[in-house]
Amino acid sequence: MPRNQIPVGLLSSFAFRGSGGITCVTLLASKTTVLPYFFKCASVFLLSMVKFFAGPIAGVSIGLNYMLTLGLTVAGMMTTVLIISSVGQAWALHQRRRRQLKGKPVFTKRSRNIVRFFRRFGMPGIAFLTPILFSPIGGTVIATQLHVPRLRIFLHMLWSAMFWGAAFTMISVRFSHLPFFHH
Predict the structure, then answer these.
(1) How confident is the model at residue 18 (pLDDT cuts 50, 70, 90)?
(2) At what angle do helices 136-145 and 31-50 cross, to 10 degrees?
(3) CA of 104: how far to CAs of 72, 90, 99, 107, 133, in Å?
(4) If you average pLDDT over every residue of the chain, what do you get?
(5) Among 50, 71, 95, 163, which has the highest number of CB atoms less than 10 A from its own CB?
(6) Whole-angstrom Cα distance, residue 147 to residue 23?
(7) CB atoms within 10 A of CB 11
(8) Model pTM?
């Protein structure tokens, strides 16, 4: 088949200079192999954005390797942290004004407990509990509501995502022989 008849999405070329001159290599990828792999990766990424521990379980159950599952899980959580911390301040101000207009108290029993926890353990405590107790969205909203700087939120959530991602992925790989992980 001539080169001009191959669909553009399936053709990938690169050139490198060897001792004999320039060599051009063309790779063809089938749609049947690329799209399912992309959807597998996307599902782990998107699950990790909402429920962190679901990413490693999904990654191992659909056959992704340890490092790819870990990377997609961490990337999913950190994408959520970046998005929520970016719009979080405006959202927190909106929520506070809405509560005041309705005549509701600004501090509830739940918010007092969160502030007490924050005073005792700080941002490292919130980051540590975010993947297992809160969700990436919940932990970031809490940190944003407490006026933690964005860089500090991002750094603490990063180490937490890496730690818990490695732990959950390792546990998922270790127990992948169970029927729960098979189709």
Answers:
(1) low
(2) 40
(3) 40, 19, 5, 9, 27
(4) 82
(5) 71
(6) 56
(7) 12
(8) 0.73
**Residues with Cβ < 8 Å from 140, sequence gap 6 or more?**
80, 81, 84, 85, 88, 130, 153, 157
The label of the residue with tokens 């088949």 reads 1
Length of the chain: 183
- Which H or E run contains 69? helix 66-101
> What is the C-alpha to C-alpha distance for residues 31 and 20, in angstroms, rounded to an integer?
34
Q: Is the dihedral of CA 87, 155, 153, 74 positive or negative?
A: positive
Q: Is the dihedral of CA 142, 145, 146, 151 positive or negative?
A: positive
| CB-CB contact of 11 with 23 (8 Å) | no
